[in-house]
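Lecture notes, continued. The same structure-token format from the folding unit now serves as the input rather than the output. Read the line below as a description of shape only.
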């Protein structure tokens, strides 16, 4: 009898397969730093941008806003109020009437504007009954004391007559006496110094007086008075002693 074959040995079950760890994905390569082909845009010009910004916001800060109001001589233009104040300052220092043209030149404005404000000032002084009066006389404008206050002015000036004349007053009086009628300018040229204050003193004391205006210059002419002759005990100017050697030649004085 045949021998039975042994049953087949069962194969052991397959061992579970351990999954292999997944590999890390390779990092993506960064974009290439190589410049792109084609024309590259240039950065904007800084100077152009700055200038455009300046024009949009206005003129540079360094520009002075008052330059346009300055005259050719560099002095600022005067408002109406400042113009009247400046006119008062100029009229206080003049010793003879001054024309509108001269004032306009000093103030860098027009004679018409000066004349208009001079009339306004004159009317204002009259309306307010000021002690000073602004009048146009002798071809120009000048300050005068108002007539109603003349007694007080005379009292002040006459009280000062008790003092003796200074050397400067005597020299000025001599020039007027020997060269009369004569202007202040010629007296100052002979003495070599300004004599406005001295002539005012002689006028206040009644030793000299105004006698018209000079045809060439328009300045006031001065001459001695009768009081001058009385004080010196003279009957006329012909009795004055000769003094020609002490003064410049007549021709040289006329040229001054």
């Amino acid at each position: 009898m045949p021998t039975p074959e042994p049953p087949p040995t069962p194969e052991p079950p397959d061992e579970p397969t351990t999954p292999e760890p997944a590999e890390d994905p390779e990092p993506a390569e960064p974009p290439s730093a190589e410049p792109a082909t084609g024309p590259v845009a240039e950065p904007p010009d800084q100077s152009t941008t700055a200038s455009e910004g300046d024009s949009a916001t206005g003129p540079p800060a360094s520009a002075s806003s008052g330059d346009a109001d300055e005259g050719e001589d560099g002095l600022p233009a005067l408002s109406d109020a400042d113009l009247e104040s400046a006119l008062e300052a100029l009229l206080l220092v003049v010793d003879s009437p001054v024309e509108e043209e001269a004032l306009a030149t000093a103030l860098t404005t027009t004679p018409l504007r000066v004349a208009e404000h001079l009339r306004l000032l004159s009317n204002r002084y009259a309306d307010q009954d000021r002690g000073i009066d602004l009048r146009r006389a002798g071809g120009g404008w000048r300050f005068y004391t108002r007539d109603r206050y003349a007694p007080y002015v005379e009292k002040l000036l006459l009280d000062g007559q008790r003092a003796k004349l200074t050397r400067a007053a005597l020299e000025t009086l001599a020039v007027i006496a020997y060269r009369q009628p004569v202007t202040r300018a010629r007296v100052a040229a002979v003495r070599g110094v300004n004599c406005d204050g001295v002539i005012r003193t002689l006028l206040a004391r009644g030793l000299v007086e105004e006698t018209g205006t000079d045809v060439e210059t328009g300045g006031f002419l001065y001459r001695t008075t009768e009081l001058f002759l009385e004080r010196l005990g003279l009957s006329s100017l012909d009795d004055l002693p000769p003094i020609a050697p002490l003064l410049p030649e007549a021709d040289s004085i006329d040229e001054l």
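Point for the exam: Residues 111-127 form the longest helix (17 residues).
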